[in-house]
């Protein structure tokens, strides 16, 4: 006898409410927003409210039976087990239909907590031909076995009640605004959760910050690696929503459809998808990617947030990166067709003009941020577009971007608006985008938000000769109106693009003697850091892999159709990020070595040949294998087949993923460099006025003519004129000698200066003495007017 019951009267009251919303709300979109808050599964005091939007299923004459299938484990479920066979009690419940929706209030469902698994649920339907199908909850709070499995009912009320950072949110009540907006931090650290700790999880990242916090409280010395995690007022997590899964399986939830009975046995596999985060299916963006949850439980995100909010040096804000500008083609298998506007360069575009779709996307965002997040970074905002049939024109949906900024959050009883960042390079990908993009399109519509600036957007390679002088016009824009730009050259996009540059390009060899040295010194560059933190307005951001001088690449192990193409496109990664010594380390590239690639040069040669064959055949696997097998110097002793190429491609992604984990480079840190970077971050934190655009007596220029050196110099002055900063840096080129107080800066005072900070290996000098700065070296002086 089933324990789960549909509560008829309460369900009727819920449906009556939905009818009232539809009848009394002024627009279809506003009604859909209210209804969206009730969708999914909500547990409260022993009762569960369920709602599904099913326009296709409920309108399909071929569908005969539609049920809510509830699967409750009858034995202990270990979310950390790699594989397990678990028995579930199966219940099929008929929900009540109202238009395109199914609704229900149920008793008897088990809610998940930190300690126990909840009931799993999805819609199960049968067609006239006897075939069964499923509809997934797209706004679930917990998907321990991915988006292609039933969601878990989770007790979100208990999760919020037990969080350890309530006092952080209580302080928002002291603000004068009715609904306060989270203020922007002074700087950011960008982190990919899968590679930022040895465990590769949110739990692993929280453990790092907890250990650092203990050391700070006990006044213990931090390691050089630990210094790279602190000195920030904000942490930006790369996307933590569920990503695409293995194209050809196996699935993480393996349930036979033809099994009848009250109990079913299901094989469960712990999700282990590798992804850089941006290959999403959009569905369940309200939940956390189970592949980055060590425990498999959503409380990990709250634990990390609470750890950062309670950090002993002061609260660290948490920003999440959301991806609603596109969906991978896998999204077609988990969302109904109303969500999609048609194919685009990433897979599928989303239909933001559909009122219910628009509302559900915003609801996904609201639920994710309600985990306790302070800010939202919107990926690829230039991709939020719609086609106007009347005008026959493609428009940017700026109103939707405003809707995103106006979502009201509520955590620990406190309502607030999150701080917003938009990445928007429109008219990208138009051919002239590098010239035409203003990086201010969203700022012009929403004056209180931030955007990624021109040196932060993807295609920046500061290791090429003349980079700094060729970007001068953009640098002037940063100086003059970059106060709402995220600045800095190191992030997941720029570092990845760097590894795609051909080794025979015009590379600044003064940055190092090898390509791996050059790329490390380019993206963790003392002069660039000094420029960003001591001169530029706006908000500096660093990438943990760059700060750790750890490798980074495009990582994704789910492909079947395009696995070989994706592998081939990373052909220069080995040149830029792997030395002979690195490759010969026993624990590095084990899978590829087991496949026969015992030497680094052998693998380099092979991947280049694969890339050439991919381009020659337009990625025809059959033709690619023919070409590779006919080469006399094929680099391998086995026959190359399509399946073998896919195996090699997957091994590459999984080996590179492990190689990019910063824990592998924990003990390789140069304390002089990490101390300088931390000192510089603290320097910025002490001077929040540096976020403002240059004005009045402030000045910035470069030495004309260059004569082989790009020497930047400038003057910053506090708003109260109490402090001045004199900045000088050799951004690239031959050593240059200057007398700091003789630089051609209008109104520059000749005395009263003292050294504030120097890049490593630069000896402090008096402001009226000659100082010689080599490539990537710089100095900042300070002067007080009181």
Automatic annotation (TrEMBL):
One Pfam short name: GHL5
Gene3D superfamilies: Glycosidases
The organism's place on the tree of life at top rank: Bacteria
Official protein name in the record: Alpha-amylase
């Amino acid at each position: 006898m089933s324990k789960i019951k549909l509560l008829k009267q309460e369900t009727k009251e819920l449906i009556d409410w939905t009818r009232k919303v539809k009848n009394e709300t002024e627009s279809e979109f506003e009604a859909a927003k209210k209804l969206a808050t009730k969708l999914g599964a909500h547990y409260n005091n022993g009762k569960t409210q369920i709602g599904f939007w099913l326009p296709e299923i409920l309108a399909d004459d071929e569908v005969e039976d539609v049920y809510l299938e509830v699967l409750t484990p009858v034995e202990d479920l270990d979310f950390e087990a790699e594989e397990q066979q678990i028995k579930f009690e199966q219940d099929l419940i008929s929900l009540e239909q109202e238009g395109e929706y199914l609704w229900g209030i149920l008793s008897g469902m088990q809610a998940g907590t930190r300690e126990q698994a909840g009931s799993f649920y999805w819609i199960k339907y049968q067609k006239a031909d006897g075939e069964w199908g499923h509809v997934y909850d797209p706004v679930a709070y917990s998907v321990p076995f991915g988006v292609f499995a039933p969601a878990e009912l989770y007790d979100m009320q208990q999760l919020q009640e037990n969080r350890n950072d309530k006092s952080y949110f209580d302080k928002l009540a002291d603000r004068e605004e009715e609904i306060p907006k989270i203020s922007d931090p002074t700087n950011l650290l960008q982190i990919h959760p899968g590679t930022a700790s040895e465990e590769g999880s949110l739990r692993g990242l929280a453990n790092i910050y907890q250990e650092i916090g203990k050391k700070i409280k006990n006044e213990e010395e931090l390691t050089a690696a630990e210094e790279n995690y602190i000195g920030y007022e904000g942490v930006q997590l790369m996307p933590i929503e569920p990503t695409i899964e293995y194209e050809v399986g196996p699935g993480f939830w393996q349930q036979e459809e033809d099994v009848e009975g009250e109990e079913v046995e299901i094989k469960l596999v712990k999700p282990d998808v590798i992804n850089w985060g941006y290959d999403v299916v959009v569905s369940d963006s309200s939940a956390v990617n189970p592949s980055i949850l060590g425990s498999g439980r959503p409380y990990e995100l709250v634990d990390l947030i609470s750890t950062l909010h309670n950090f002993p040096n002061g609260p660290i804000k948490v920003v999440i990166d959301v991806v609603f500008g596109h969906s991978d083609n896998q999204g077609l298998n988990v969302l109904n067709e109303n969500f999609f506007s048609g194919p685009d360069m990433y897979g599928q575009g989303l239909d933001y003009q559909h009122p219910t779709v628009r509302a559900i996307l915003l609801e996904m965002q609201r639920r994710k941020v309600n985990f306790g997040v302070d800010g939202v970074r919107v990926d690829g905002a230039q991709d939020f577009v719609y086609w106007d049939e009347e005008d026959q024109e493609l428009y940017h949906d700026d109103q939707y971007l405003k809707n995103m900024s106006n979502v009201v959050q509520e955590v620990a009883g406190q309502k607030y608006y999150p701080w917003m960042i938009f990445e928007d390079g429109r008219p990208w990908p138009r051919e002239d985008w590098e010239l035409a993009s203003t990086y201010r399109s969203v700022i012009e519509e929403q004056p209180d938000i931030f955007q990624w600036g021109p040196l932060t957007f993807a295609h920046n390679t500061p290791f090429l000769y003349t980079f700094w002088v060729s970007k001068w016009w953009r640098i002037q824009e940063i100086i003059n109106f970059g106060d709402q730009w995220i600045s800095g050259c190191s992030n997941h996009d720029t570092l990845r693009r760097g590894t795609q540059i051909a080794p025979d390009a015009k590379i600044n060899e003064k940055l190092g003697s090898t390509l791996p040295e050059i790329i490390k010194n380019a993206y963790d560059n003392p002069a660039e850091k000094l420029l960003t933190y001591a001169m530029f307005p706006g908000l500096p951001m660093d990438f943990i892999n760059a700060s750790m001088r750890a490798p980074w690449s495009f990582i994704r192990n789910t492909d079947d159709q395009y696995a070989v193409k994706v592998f081939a496109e990373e052909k220069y990664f080995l040149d830029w990020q792997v030395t002979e010594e690195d490759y010969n380390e026993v624990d590095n590239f084990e899978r590829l070595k087991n496949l026969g690639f015992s030497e680094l040069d052998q693998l380099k040669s092979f991947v280049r040949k694969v890339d050439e064959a991919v381009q020659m055949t337009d990625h025809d696997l059959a033709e690619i294998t023919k070409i590779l097998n006919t080469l006399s110097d094929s680099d391998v002793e086995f026959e190359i087949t399509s399946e073998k190429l896919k195996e090699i491609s997957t091994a590459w992604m999984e080996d590179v993923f492990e190689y990019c984990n910063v824990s592998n480079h924990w003990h390789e840190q140069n304390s002089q460099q990490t101390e300088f970077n931390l000192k510089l971050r603290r320097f910025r934190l002490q001077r929040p006025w540096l976020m403002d655009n240059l004005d009045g007596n402030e000045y910035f220029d470069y030495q004309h003519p260059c004569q082989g050196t790009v020497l930047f110099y400038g003057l910053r002055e506090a708003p109260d004129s109490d402090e001045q900063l004199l900045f000088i840096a050799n951004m690239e080129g031959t050593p240059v000698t200057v007398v700091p107080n003789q630089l051609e800066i209008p109104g520059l005072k000749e005395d009263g200066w003292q050294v504030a900070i120097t890049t490593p290996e630069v000896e402090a000098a008096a402001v009226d003495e000659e100082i010689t700065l080599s490539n990537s070296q710089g100095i900042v002086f300070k002067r007080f007017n009181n």
